[in-house]
Amino acid sequence: MQAEELEQINLAAIAAAQARIAPYVRRTPLVASATLSRRLGAQVHLKLEMLQKTGSFKVRGAFNKMAGLPRGSRVVAVSGGNHGQAVAYAAGVLGMAARVIMPQATPANYVEATRGYGAEVVLVAAISEAFALARAAEGEGWVMVHPFDDAAIINGQGTVGREIVEDLPGVTDVVVSIGGGGLATGVAAAVKRQRPAVRLWGVETEGADCMAQALAAGRVVTLPQITSIARTLGAPAASPLTLRAAQAWFERVEVVSDAATVRALDFLLERCKLLTEPAAACTLAAAERLAPQWKPSDQVVLVLCGGNLAVADLCGFAPLRAAP
Length: 324
Known about the structure:
Distance between the termini: 44 Å
Mean pLDDT: 95
Shape: globular
Number of helices: 15
Largest sheet: 6 strands, mixed
Helix content: 40-55%
CATH class of the largest domain: Alpha Beta
CATH architecture of the largest domain: 3-Layer(aba) Sandwich
Structural class: alpha/beta
Strand order of the largest sheet: 1-2-10-7-8-9
Order of helices and strands: HHEHEHEHEHEHEHEHEHHEHHEHH
CATH topology of the largest domain: Rossmann fold
């Protein structure tokens, strides 16, 4: 069944998504970095999704899903941050009511931004409770907008990959972070179905590594809790669909530490003048490991998926900066 579902993630659907969401989202820059090219020994380019509306790639999938719903629909979403903001923003633009159910541990800046876009925010103790409430809302006529396990969402996120190939036809490697796998699956579909030789590298952080564990086990694995600072990678489990995509298209998934992620985040801020969240900076931490296998002529893209980082959290990472 997953193979059939994976066929729904295809170039025609991604191209249609690109046209559908164009009035609502930004085509984010793909910029070359001389600093990182010297550091990593390849031609390094950065896909700046932190400059996207709401600060992350998530609006792409949200608009692709929600633009196909009747005006006046009521949508419900479960999110620890970026997805909730995207659904709230899209709902406001499209004239819909939105309810976003978030764990109580969600950083205040995500909660405030989601409310600021006009959504009703419901805070709950656990992610399992959040999904239970969302399912109950579905029974009352609300439409669930899943963060990653939905072909419309994934095809929307795949527009990131389509833009990469359009802007850099000679791309050889793409490094992209994985939460539940929606972005990674969409990017992989868009890239591999146009450039089969391109190498795809997934990235997770320790304590938010559901995909790496699923790949090792050969089945979906549910994490008992998320302990990483990369909260927006905090899906407790991949889906059978996104696991199948990772098995089919990725070279492997690198799992990096929070400390390495913070060092990468600091480097991007200090040397590249880019403020990223840990879920984005971890791609540079992984690229440091991958660099020995790259040639100077390789064209490497790091997808910087978001930049929604509170100043308090940035300052609070100080203990990790001293970690080995």
